[in-house]
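Entry for the shared binder. Reason: the reviewer on the internal report wants the predicted structure included alongside the sequence.
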Amino acid sequence: MSEHRIRLEYRPIAELIPYEGNAKKHPPEQIQALVRSFNAFERIVPAGIDAKGHLIYGHGRILAAKARGDTDFPCVVIDHLSETQRRAFVHADNLLSRSDTDEDLLRSEMISLQAAGFDVSLTGYDPAGLQLGGEPTAPFWGEVEAESTEAFESFKARYAHKLTTDDVYTPDNIYEAVLHWARAHYELGEAQIVRPFYPGGNYQAADYPAGCVVIDNPPFSILSEICAWYEERRIQYLLFAPGMTLFSINSGRSHYLPVGAPVFFPNCEATISMSFVTSLGQYRIELCPELYQAMDAANRENLAALHKELPVYAYPDAVACVTMNRLCKYGQALQILPEAACFIRALDAQRDAGKAIYGGGFLLSEKAAAEKAAAEKAAAEKAAATSWPLSERELALIATLGEAGDG
C-alpha cells in the first residue's frame, strides 16, 4: 500500500477555487453557526485543497471565514489525486462523513459541559433540548443568531438570490461581446434574443416566441436541468457555463464551446473562467478564439475602469497593513516584536466613515513606526531609480575581468 503524505499550509481565501459540482448545501444559518464556532474555538479544522487551490472539502468553512472577514485559511494540500478522483472524493466525503449519533451519550456529554459552565450552543446543539428525559438535541442552525458584522451582512446580501442567479451578474459589455459574436457566427439574423435569468425570475414561466434564442448567464447549479428543459421544447440556447465542468453539463448531449475566457464579476468580486454550452451549430466541440478575444478585451476594459475607481488610502507610519509586503520586492527587511504591535481592524476615523483596514492591521510603537518609515523610504527610492541593463558585450567583458591576476 502506497503512502501519500499531506501538508498543511495557510492559503489566501481569494485564491481558493470552490468546486462547482459540490452538491452539499450551506445555508446562511449554517454559516452563522460556523462563524460562532470560529470565534469560540478558532479555525482548528482545515479545508482540503489540491495543489492548485481547488477545494475538495471545507466549502462551508471557507464561506464562514469570508463572512467573518478572514483573508486566509489553514488548508491540507492533497496533491496525489487525479482530477476525476478529486471530483469523486468531494461527494464521497460529503456522504461518508455522515453517521448516526448515540443520542443518550451526546445528551450526557452536553449536560456535563453545561454543568461546567460552558455555552453548549457553541457546539452547534440547542441547549433547550438538553434536559434529562427530554427530546434529543438538534442543531441550532436557524435558532441562534450569530453576531452581525458588516462582513457577514455583505455575505448574506451577496448570496440572497443564489438559486436564481448563482451570485453572478454578467457585465453589460461582456454580454454584448458574446451577443455580437453569436449573431455573426451562427447567422441568427433578426432572431429574438431572450434573457430569462434574473433575480427572482422563473425561466420556465418566461415567454419564448417562435424562433427565439436564449443567450444568457444561468445559475450553474441547475445548468443541466435547464439545457434538458430547453431541448424538450426545442428552444435554441447559448448559455454561459463554468469551464472546469463544461463537458459534464447535460451529460454530453449539448454542443460545447471551451472558451475559458476570464470574466470579473463585480457583484461577487470574483474572476471566473467562462465557457459556453449551446444547441446551436453542428459541432459537438468547437474552439472559438474570436469569442475569447472579444470577451477578454471587454474584461480588460472593466478591470481598467475598476482600478481607476478604487480609492487609495494612505495610512500613518504607526499603522502596518498587508500592503507592506511590497517592501520585500525592494530588498527591505523589517522585524517588529509582539510587544511593539497592537492588532486593529480599523482606525477610529475609518469606523466613523464605515470603513476598515482590508485584512486588518497593527498599531506600531514609535520605534517600530520609525523603522517602518525608513524601510518604506528606502524602497520608494529604489523603486524610483532607473535600472540600466548590461549588454551581452558588457557581460562578456565582466567575465574576463580579474583573469590576468589569477593563478
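Summary line for the report: Residues 319-384 form one domain.
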